[in-house]
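Supplementary notes for students who missed Thursday's class. We covered one full example, reproduced here. Read the sequence, then the structure, then the short commentary at the end.
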Amino acid sequence: MGKKSTLCAFAFIAAFFVTGCGETPLSVVELRCGDTDILAEVYQNRLEAIVGEHSLTLYQVEAASGAKYSDETVVLWNKGENWMLIMDEDTDTEKMFDCIER
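Structure (token representation):
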């Protein structure tokens, strides 16, 4: 297998894993939270997000209202039309941002 074939095979495998095996998102949202741009794909029980330059998988967690997604460090919380970004939740350095859908 040549370099080009190996590269193409690797790109295909990487795309397969990144897209969740071809799963179609329920919705796609573009947000501006403070100075941070977020592109989020919402699935059944998780949210795949690009936050700034980082890719994150946030899993749906229990919320009193709305849909809340977390990886224990970053939280994206949707209540109707409103979104909130919480970074470093439950720490002394916690930061909260209201988000604007773009």
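Commentary. The beta strands are 27-33, 36-42, 46-51, 54-61, 67-70, 74-79, 82-87, 95-101. Residues 1-19 have pLDDT under 50 and may be disordered. If anything here is unclear, bring it to office hours.
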